[in-house]
Design brief:
Chain A has eleven helices and no strands. Chain A is mainly alpha-helical and 297 residues long. By secondary structure, chain B is mainly alpha-helical. The chains are: A mainly alpha (297), B mainly alpha (344). Chains A and B meet through helix 4, helix 5, helix 9, helix 10 and helix 11 of A and helix 2, helix 7, helix 8, helix 9 and helix 12 of B.
Amino acid sequence: MTTAAALTWQRRRESAARFWKQYRRHRAGLLGLAALALFVVIALTAPLTVGSDVASVTEAPGRPMESPSAEFPLGTDRFGRDLLGLLVWGSRVSLLVGLLAAVLSVLIGGLVGITAGHFRGPYATVVMRVTDWFLVMPTLVLAIALATVMSRSLGTIVLAIGVTIWPTTARLVRAQTLAVESRPYIERAKALGGGHWHIMSRHVLPNVMPLILAQTTLMISTSILSEATLAFLGLGDPTVVSWGGMLQEAREAGAVSSGDWWYLVPPGIAIAVVALAFTLCGRAVESVLNPRLGVGR
Amino acid sequence: MATDTAVAKAQAPKTERRAGSGYVRYCAGKVGGAVVSLFAVLVTSFFLFRLIPGDPVKYMTGGRKVSNEQLAAYRREFGLDLPLWEQFADYCGKALTGDLGTSYQFRTPVIDKITEALPNTLILTGTAFVLYTALGIFLGTRSAWRHGGLGDRVNTGLALTLYSIPSFWLGLLLIIVFGVGLGPIPGLFPTGGMESGGEEGFAYVVDVAHHLVLPVITLVAVEYGQTLLVTRSALLDEMGSDYLTTARAKGLRDDLVRRRHAVPNAMLPTVTLIFVNLGRTVAGVILVETVFSWPGLGGLFYQALSVPDLPLVQGLFFVFAATVIVMNTVADLIYPLLDPRVGR
């Protein structure tokens, strides 16, 4: 048994090394990965670098709406809070919500996709009908509707985004499941007495896992943009600082008509860079796993 | 395309009639599916917004002190005193006749507010849709034909970057730079709205066009990337095909091979995806109209959300979803006409 396990691990290491070797060839993917690493470090070290006091309205260090200066490199907001500090602190919420919503959507999509591909018949028909229905619904409108009817909290946002963006994943995973299940070794496993659970977890799942990983990366980018959008529309949690929320506050404080560009530019750039970084990584992973897709060509 | 249909005709003179009835059956299936989807939207929009915590009557009165009799009167006026299933039956029946209820905040029929705002949205979305589709297909074709080149890398990179930018943020920046004016740049365009007022005839058209510039640029910038990437990958899939080698072997010019042979075939998946992407455009429209105070459906949706004015939110939710479902069905219906291999 131990030798079999050791062999498995050795193979896994080898395939990971092979994957990394091919991934390294995608320059855009490496760039995205570097940007991500930077943002993750910023978000994780935020309690040390800026601390949660930065979001306090009552103990703001500066005067309201100051332009950038040596003390406040990005200026201050309408309460006199340091915008650079808020930007750093906001990265935590944006990344966390993006990650959780993407994981939720991929969990739903993966589960629906694998089961719909494995159990055919009426179950699959009904489930895929529902998926198609969700697929044509305008995602943001549905997310807005959900966020409106639930209480204002981060959990609501994660849920509203997660349950609206899963259908693409479900479709992709189902297609891959069907392809895997038509291979002879699945028939062999069935002949040897492998049940539904065994086939789905031991044979199908490992084969769709790479696709799921690539999809998660792409979905994080979508989730981060959706989170910013919902926060901008005033549907976010008003008690936490996020990049979308900062933009909403800037607009409410009249930064647009007074031309205070320093209030608006940084959060938007942060959102765009993180979303772009995840998209680049996702595309690089996708083209390593499936060269026929042609995205990296 | 031309050669394709010629081959199809030559091969299948006998099956012509059967193929025709196949298309009718295909259409019936798709339209039936769309009707089911529309009903599902109606059900969702009804029950989803009943989940909202609190009493809807409270939103109507806006927190003012009201007597219990008045609250009861409001409930009767909006039919909120009936059992839920009766409300639902009533809602469905009225929706079929185009009655989507009465707005809490405007005290006018929801359908009136929607028909009032619809033309404005159509002007904005229509203009943007035509522009971003044309731009996306044009640049996508170029990119794929010379894939790996500098032009391709710049195009794809730019498209991906713009695709990652929140549309509302781009809109706000454009307002600051070109609306309000920044440094040496004067405010060239209006910061919001659709007209300055008081203009008539041709001057009115020019005025609206002037107001249209910034919102349309925003929408085009965030939406064309998707079309570009889809066109590019569809064309890349075609490029290894044997029929292109044959076309070149015939001695056709590169330009003709591209326009007559490769692009029409690559357009097939693109057409579907352009319609599917309309769902994303709806989201873009809501944000852009909000940012530019454009008096359309998206701006109305934002206004309704901030109250929240449930009948109006409900009605707009239905209109947005229905638009996308109808557009998708249209794409499904024209697809077999474009590609004879599908739906027979």
